[in-house]
Amino acid sequence: MARWPGGTVHELREGEQAIAVDDRGRIYLLRLGRGHQFHFHRGTVPHEAIIGQPEGLIVRSSLGARLHVFRPTMADFVLKMPRASGIIYPKDMGTILVYGDICPGATVVEAGLGSGSLTIALLRAVGKEGRVISYEVREEFARQAVQNIRRYLGDTPTHTVRLQDIHEGIVEQEVDRVVLDLLEPWRAVEPAARALRGGGLFLAYMATVPQVTRLIETLKAHGGFALIETLEVLHRNWHVEGLSVRPFHRMVGHTGFVTLARRRLEGAEALPPPAGQGAEGAEGEAFKPPVPEAGLEEEGGEWEGPER
Ligand SMILES: C[S@@+](CC[C@H](N)C(=O)[O-])C[C@H]1O[C@@H](n2cnc3c(N)ncnc32)[C@H](O)[C@@H]1O
Can you give the pLDDT at residue 2? Predict the structure, then answer.
C-alpha cells in the first residue's frame, strides 16, 4: 500500500525520508536509519536524534549548527532524488496535474518514466482507485525511477511499468489520460488516439518550439482531437526582507511547454434537436447569464478561454 507522506503521523520513523535545512536554506535529503550519521560541512547529527521526534524539530550538529528537520514535500523530494534523466520540475507538475485533470480513480498512461518525478505526482493524484502505466525504453532509467518512487511513496500497487516503446502502441484501452514527456511526442499521437476514450485528454511536455509546432500539426492532421492548446508557466521567487522586497535576480527562465488536446469521438456528431424542442441555452441561442441580485457582488470574472 502506498504511503502518502505528509499524512497524520507526526513522529519521524526509521526508514522514512527527512530533509534537514540549515540556516542558509540549504536542503539535505536523508533516509532515517538507526546507527547512521548525517554528515555535512558543519558537523554531524546522529539519526537517533531525529527518529521518534515530531516533524519540525530543530537539531544541533556536532559543531553547533542549527538544522530544521521535516518530511520532504513532493517538490523537495523530486529536486533532491537521484536522477537518471531530466525531470519534470514542480512548477510544471502542478500545471500538468491541474490542466491534465489528473484526478482520483483515473487511468493514466505516461511515457517516458525517466527518473519518476512526474510519476510520483501522477500516482498521488490518481489515488488508490486509479492506475498509472508508465512506458519506458531504457531499463536502467526504469530501475532508478522505481527506486525513487518506492523511496517516496512506498509500495505502489497502482503502478505498472512497461519496458516498451510507446510509439509502437499502447496496450491499455479506454484510458482517461495520456501524458508524454519524450523527444518526439508526435510519434505517439496515433497510439494515444487509439488508447484514449472519447473525452480523454492528451498532454505532452516539450522543451522546444519546433517540437510544439510539429506536435500541433500532427494533432490537427490526425483529426481525432479537439481543444488543442499550448501553455507555459513562469515561476519567479521573491526576496522579502524588511524594505528589500523584490523578485530574485535569478529565476528558472524556461523549462518546457505543455500542449493539451481532447480526444473526440469520430463519426459521432450530435444533431441539433428538432425546431421548437431545443433546451434553453442550446446551440444557436445566446446564453443569457443570470442577473445577479441587487446588492450581491457578481463572483469572479468571465474568461473566454485561450485562443485556439
Ligand atoms: C525527459 S525523460 C522523462 C522524465 C520524467 N517525466 C520525469 O519526470 O522524471 C524522457 C524519457 O523518455 C524515455 N523515452 C524516450 N522515447 C521513448 C519511447 N518511444 N517510449 C517510451 N519511453 C521513451 C527516455 O528513455 C527517457 O527516460
Answer: 44
